[in-house]
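note to self — DONT lose this again. spent like an hour looking for the file last time. sequence + predicted structure for the chain T wanted, 401 res
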Amino acid sequence: MDYSKWQAIHRKKNVKKGIQFSLMVAGASGTGRTTFVNTLCGRKVVESAAEEHYDPKEAALETGISIRPVTVGEGWGSFDAGSNGVDLDMEGARVSLTVVDTPGFGDNINNEACFGEIIGYLEHQYDDILAEESRIKRNPRFRDNRVHLLLYFITPTGHGLRELDIELMRRLAARVNIIPVIGKADSLTPVEIAETKKLVMEDIEYYKIPIYNFPYDVEEDDEQTVEENAQLRQKLPFAMVGSTEFFEINGKTTRARQYPWGFVEVENPRHSDFSVLRAAMLGTHLVDLKEITHDILYENYRTERLSRGVESAYTDSSLNAEELASQSFMLKEEQIRRDEEKLREIELRVHREITEKRQELLAREHELKEMEARFARGMLSVESEISDEANKNRVQHDVRG
């Protein structure tokens, strides 16, 4: 199939079905996690801890973590005052956003259970996909709820990572793309923000925490992609400021936070990295985040899951030879499927390169033909001038004669 036709078909499917994107936000209470979500969606989607009702008798109890997915769906993403929201559009395709909030994380003395709850939720979504793929007849309306990105909100202390931060990101990196952000960055000065970013990235490098650092390949990617990703990488971790209030600033209505000395504008790049992060995760890098989730994170989990099934089959005396053979067959089938996908990707890439080279050659051939035509016209013009000059000389000679 022609690559351009394949792209057109793919875009039509996206326009018809829409693009599903799942975002998880995690961080201790007071880091601006809830405000960020409501700012991103352009309306109130999740409630803050202060808005929830608690029983005073249970105030001394550790409530633990709760996982709360909320599908925002169509009609979201507006940042205009008084608007009810507009669809997020990416190449004509609507994006349906699911936000997974994790209130209660980091608020307990012992947060070990919190790690298990989040990992369990992420793996449960993978298990749903695995079960659906194993069906003889798949559900055409099946919804993929895998989390494509985790924004981890770091407490704005002006220092590096805490042990809790390090442990969470290290444990979850194998199951989800992670981007660290500094919550409530307006509580720090620009100098403190720069120092905090430096310390956080030094800790991430020291502890070898695999985050989503906007990867690029200088040899394979184009210059624009390399430059954009390099700039985004330099901004890690993103300094985040959110607000649900609108103010009139310089004749423009915008979301901001008001202080005695002035305003902190949410979408002003000098005040916050909010607009940069939003454009990256829901625009330029949305497809990349989804592809990494499916092609790397999910495939690794799938292989581990099937491998564990085969290993347990060997140790389970109640499993007969037919079931054991079936497990082995699934593993081989999975490997074959992955190899076929890689071959298809290579074929598409080669076909695309051939098409580009052919177009380039046709363009050069067209240029050569134009040059030949101009040269021929020039030669005719020169010959005509020579002929005219010769006739003129002949006439002058005849007159003198």
